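hey m, so remember when u said the tokens were messed up on ur end? i reran from scratch. heres the input so u can diff it against urs
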Amino acid sequence: MTTVLTASPALLAPIFAAVLCACGNPQPTPTETTKPTAAAAAAPDAAMNLYSMKLHALDGSTVDMSQFHGKVTLVVNVASYCGYTPQYTGLQALHTELKGRGFAVLGFPCNDFGAQEPGTAAEIQSFCTTQHGVDFPLFAKLQTKEGKDQSPLYAQLQQTTGKLPGWNFCKYLVGKDGKALQFFAAGVAPDSKELRAAIESALE
């Protein structure tokens, strides 16, 4: 005699669902999401570049970076109380000499390293102007380091070059199309032959 066991559809439904899930059901279940993860959403767009962004100036106004399209720029994370702070003078000299040829230094205050940029926007502006005669564009204080508060600018620079600043006054040379060309460590002075040669090449 053969005994046949039967089960109600209500009891079988969870079993079938588990089998489908284990086999790689392509359809999302009600608990899944088709939206990008937070990390993916935060990742910089590979098609973007510096000149496609809108950033904040030191005074809080919005700067459309497209105004620099066709120019060569030097992006520098600056600080007022660093051993490299005297580089401000050399950066200003570069900016003054080469701005007529389509070059600009862009300063981005940063308190990431040694808490050496603690000041307010007004204090930073006053220091740069009175102590070093800076008239190149200065932007709002930002974070260069990886993390949830990292500036989209530095996330993009990191993606393009594979490098992030390890200290204040690191430099990215950015080409006429807004793409980063080269990274220079903090110890590379504004008047170094290495940096100057790279700028001249980018300006050609």
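this time it looks ok to me. The domain at 48-203 is CATH 3.40.30.10 (Glutaredoxin). if urs says something different then somethings off w ur setup not the seq
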